[in-house]
């Protein structure tokens, strides 16, 4: 997809380049600036398109509505919505590449405006006189100064978006990425300068014409490209032995100007491109702010092994589907920073409680844990709301859609989790515990890979309850649970007699993915199986490759991957 999008933008760049290179209305400007004009305008058209579309994947409410509405009935189309983050990143990379071209072209334009100053076309010049310092055009004009600041903003946003910075210090990524609003405001001012102009009176003053009110210029010629496109402008000498009619002199020998060339700045087309998406995004952010303005009621906080915290909450009129995620904002932790977490428990008709599991791995989660627990080093099992304890205010934005909503819409699903990546599947398992007969799903393969044995205790009770429920309903084949302990010094078991059903499904080592896919394909011939993965990229790439490979059983695998947008 990334290659296709970049190729499409290169094609748009080429078409716009040719338009400005051959267009008559830019003849005099092209004579002054050369290829700098074509490159700057062509790259600007690509930037307009991508600055318009880069905001749309961040409209989470719109995406959640489209995914949950019947208007997008096609499963294949809904899967395209899951590529929103990939599309956002691709547009961002495209903006970075063509911004470099745009800046380089305008640096050349500033130099050409100074060196090729023309007293004949004063209004066409950006410089005030020949030899003017080009740095004045960059730092003393609105287009130049806003362009310089936008380059600095883009540099900060791009460098802070790299994987190394996002992992080491997410705060830097968060704050610099929110500079996008400054970037768009500067962009609105940048295009209002009207530096590049086009000719408006081509009929009255075609390029290369003769103006009787001025001194006749010697060796008057017209570019060959214009002779082919406009034979009326040809300058071939008329035969001497034939009479020359007056109209023919004007139309075929040389055109006579009726007035001076007039130039006009382009209307800021960028406004048309970005105003719609920017307004849509601002309206959505306002809607999300109003929707999440009321804090939730925290009903319980549970500390799990391996630095995992479970928070259970209640909120009026909160509805969510299995697999969706929410964004948590705690002002006492950070005034501006928010983080997405997958719902591990969704509200139902019988209970209004919903919850999330979060792994304490960074500054934000550490401060959040310290505020929730009585003491940061105390393994409190459960802290009910009725205890004399005041929890900090917590705001929930969402829910928002994710690929795992589709896991219940397949007849057979394969769910693969790595460590804390099990959270999207927890809400699915909780939903099946409440009742599975109303869903299309008839068989679920659940694979969970962890490094330490204690991690399985996060959802051990849930897995055991679901296993026992299906046995009582005579459907033991409904779910196939496989737990893999990737790092161990010997045979280990999940502590507790009630976990005996899970201990029998606990395997040492890593899954043999090829054999696993072959076995599933053999047991589900000529069926379409949904593959869902939330875990390390290494596992994700393996599953993606196996899902795209063919098999001899006619089984088709459709790959889905969790990706917060």
What does this entry look like structurally?
The structure is a single chain. Helix 3 (35-53) packs antiparallel against helix 6 (84-115), helix 8 (142-160) runs antiparallel to helix 10 (170-177) and helix 16 (423-434) runs parallel beside helix 17. This protein starts with a helix and ends with a strand. It folds into three domains: 1-141 and 193-200 and 264-283, no CATH class; 294-373 and 390-400, Elongation Factor Tu (Ef-tu), domain 3 (Beta Barrel), CATH 2.40.30; 406-562, Rossmann fold. Helix content is 43%, strand content 15%. By secondary structure, the chain is of the alpha/beta class. The longest helix has 32 residues, at 84-115.
Task: Summarize the SSE layout with pairings.
Elements: H1 2-22, H2 27-33, H3 35-53, H4 60-68, H5 75-81, H6 84-115, H7 134-139, H8 142-160, H9 163-168, H10 170-177, H11 180-190, E1 197-199, H12 224-229, H13 246-253, E2 263-265, H14 269-291, E3 297-304, E4 308-314, E5 325-329, E6 339-345, E7 354-359, H15 363-372, E8 395-400, E9 412-418, H16 423-434, E10 443-450, H17 460-472, E11 479-485, H18 500-503, E12 506-508, H19 513-523, E13 528-534, H20 537-548, E14 556-561
Parallel strand pairs: 9-10, 9-13, 10-11, 11-12, 13-14
Antiparallel strand pairs: 1-2, 3-4, 4-7, 5-6, 5-8, 6-7
Helix pairs in contact: 1-3, 1-6, 3-6, 3-14, 6-8, 8-10, 8-11, 16-17
């Amino acid at each position: 997809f990334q290659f296709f999008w970049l190729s499409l933008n290169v094609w748009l760049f080429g078409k716009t380049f040719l338009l400005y290179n051959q267009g008559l209305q830019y003849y005099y400007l092209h004579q002054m600036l050369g290829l700098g004009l074509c490159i700057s305008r062509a790259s600007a058209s690509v930037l307009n398109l991508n600055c318009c579309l880069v905001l749309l994947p961040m409209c989470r409410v719109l995406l959640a509505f489209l995914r949950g509405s019947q208007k997008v009935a096609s499963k294949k189309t809904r899967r395209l919505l899951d590529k929103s983050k990939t599309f956002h990143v691709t547009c961002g990379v495209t903006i970075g590449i063509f911004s470099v071209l745009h800046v380089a072209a305008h640096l050349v334009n500033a130099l050409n405006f100074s060196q090729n100053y023309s007293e004949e076309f004063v209004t066409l010049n950006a410089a005030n006189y020949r030899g003017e310092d080009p740095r004045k055009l960059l730092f003393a004009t609105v287009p130049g100064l806003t362009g310089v600041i936008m380059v600095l903003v883009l540099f900060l946003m791009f460098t802070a978006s790299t994987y190394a910075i996002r992992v080491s210090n997410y705060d830097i990524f968060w704050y610099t990425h929110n500079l996008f609003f400054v970037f768009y405001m500067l962009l609105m001012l940048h295009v209002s300068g009207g530096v590049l102009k086009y000719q408006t009176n081509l009929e009255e003053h075609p390029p290369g014409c003769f103006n009787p009110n001025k001194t006749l210029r010697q060796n008057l010629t017209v570019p060959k490209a214009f002779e082919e496109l406009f034979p009326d402008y040809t300058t071939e000498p008329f035969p001497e032995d034939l009479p020359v009619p007056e109209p023919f002199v004007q139309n075929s020998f040389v055109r006579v100007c009726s007035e001076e060339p007039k130039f006009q700045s382009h209307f800021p087309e960028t406004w048309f491109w970005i105003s719609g998406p920017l307004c849509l995004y601002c309206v959505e952010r306002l809607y999300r702010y109003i929707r999440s303005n009321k804090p939730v009621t925290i009903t319980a906080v549970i500390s799990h092994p391996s630095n995992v915290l479970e928070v259970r909450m209640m909120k009026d009129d909160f509805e969510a589907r299995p697999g969706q995620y929410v964004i948590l904002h705690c002002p006492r932790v950070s005034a501006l920073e928010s983080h997405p977490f997958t719902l591990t428990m969704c509200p139902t008709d019988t209970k209004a409680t919903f919850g999330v599991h979060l792994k304490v791995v960074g500054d934000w989660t550490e401060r959040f844990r310290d505020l929730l627990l009585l003491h940061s080093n105390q393994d409190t099992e459960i802290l009910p709301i009725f205890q004399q304890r005041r929890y900090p205010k917590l705001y929930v934005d969402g829910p928002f859609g994710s690929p795992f909503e589709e896991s219940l819409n397949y007849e057979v699903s394969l769910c693969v989790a790595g460590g804390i990546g099990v959270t999207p599947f927890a809400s699915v398992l909780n939903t099946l515990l409440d009742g599975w007969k109303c869903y299309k799903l008839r068989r679920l393969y659940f694979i969970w890979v962890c490094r330490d044995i204690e991690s399985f205790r996060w959802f051990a009770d849930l897995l055991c309850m679901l296993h026992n429920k299906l046995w009582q309903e005579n459907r033991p084949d409904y779910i196939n649970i496989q737990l893999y302990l990737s790092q161990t010094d010997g045979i280990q078991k999940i502590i507790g007699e009630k976990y005996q059903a899970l201990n029998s499904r606990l395997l040492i080592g890593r899954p043999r993915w090829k054999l696993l896919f072959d076995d599933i394909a053999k047991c589900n011939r000529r069926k379409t199986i949904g593959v869902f993965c939330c875990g390390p990229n290494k596992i994700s790439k393996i599953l993606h490759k196996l899902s795209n490979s063919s098999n001899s059983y006619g089984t088709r695998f459709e790959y889905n991957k969790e990706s917060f947008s």
